[in-house]
Amino acid sequence: MDVRVTSDPRKFEETVFPFLHKDPVLHTIIMTNVHERASGIARPESEPSYFVSVHDPDVAGVAMRTPGRGVYLGALPPDLAEPIADAYADVLGELPAVAGDRPAALRFARRWCELRGGQATESRGTRLHKLIELTPLTADAGGPRPMRADEVDLVAAWGKDGFADELSTGHREWAERQLEQATLWIWEAGGEAVSMVGYHAALYGVCRVGPVYTPPEHRRHGYAGALTSHVSALILAGGNQACLYTELSNPTSNKIYHQAGYRPVADFVDVEFTAPPA
């Protein structure tokens, strides 16, 4: 077994994308993050990313760690978790979390705590869904339209409010990028923006929908579901597959996306690390 570590996203993309392309929906998180960095789309970062691939002799599993975040394992086979934890321990002194398929994430966490001390706690569960057959959803009022140039601040504020952890920093830069790439839609009702749905540009025929956000005062009117089904229809019309993630703790969103035609593909967990006492 050969475990390789690199901070070069282009080299990593060339090495592992033929393997990941076998199931681009299942591997959407890693593929989009690596591709954005390899192609220069991602904003500049002050720290390196660390990408790991396991070869036996061909690629058998991959993982990534981008600045300020935990390690992402995705659908990594559980038996590769410990070697990957060892590889990250060689380049990182500390780590906030690990996420991925539950058996792999827990084995990684156990090994990381053996090496670095501290404790590991499951903090969140997510579910990956794939659109199988679209059923359009409707809302109480209004309709969809693309994001406008004068809505950068609004979209940035919504992103910060609803996705502080996912976006972490650079909310305005993120909003400007959505406008530039035309990958964010607004639901407007009564002349007011009431919900937003973004998506990632197609990569290997897959678009990942998100973020989806409706301010609290505009919820329970069907805006997010209707806008998500509209964006999903656009993705299908472009000849691509649509997928999205939901929080397992939010039965409402899981129900809505099921009504729109999305079906579960895989479940993942986040595991947070607590540093040992000084």
Please give a quick description of this structure.
With 278 residues, this protein is of the alpha+beta class. It is built from 9 helices and 12 strands.
Strand content: 25-35%
Give the count of structural domains: 2
CATH architecture of the largest domain: 3-Layer(aba) Sandwich
Quaternary assembly:
single chain
Estimated structural class: alpha+beta
Report the CATH topology name of the largest domain: Aminopeptidase
Mean pLDDT: 94
What ranges have pLDDT less than 50 throughout 5 or more consecutive residues?
none
**Shape category:** globular
Main CATH class of the largest domain: Alpha Beta
List keywords for this structure.
278 residues, alpha+beta, Aminopeptidase, 2 domains, 12-stranded mixed β-sheet, 31% strand, globular
Structural description of this entry:
The chain is globular. The protein has helices at 9-20, 28-38, 81-91, 102-116, 152-162, 164-167, 171-181, 223-237, 251-260, and strands at 2-6, 50-55, 59-65, 71-74, 97-100, 119-131, 143-146, 184-189, 192-199, 206-213, 241-247, 262-274. The chain contains nine helices and twelve strands. Helix 3 (81-91) links the parallel strand 4 and strand 5. The mean pLDDT is 94. The protein folds into two domains: 2-126 and 269-274, Aminopeptidase (3-Layer(aba) Sandwich), CATH 3.40.630; 133-260, 3-Layer(aba) Sandwich (Aminopeptidase), CATH 3.40.630.30. A twelve-stranded mixed β-sheet has the order 1-2-3-4-5-12-6-11-10-9-8-7, sandwiched between helices. It is α+β, with helices and mostly antiparallel strands.
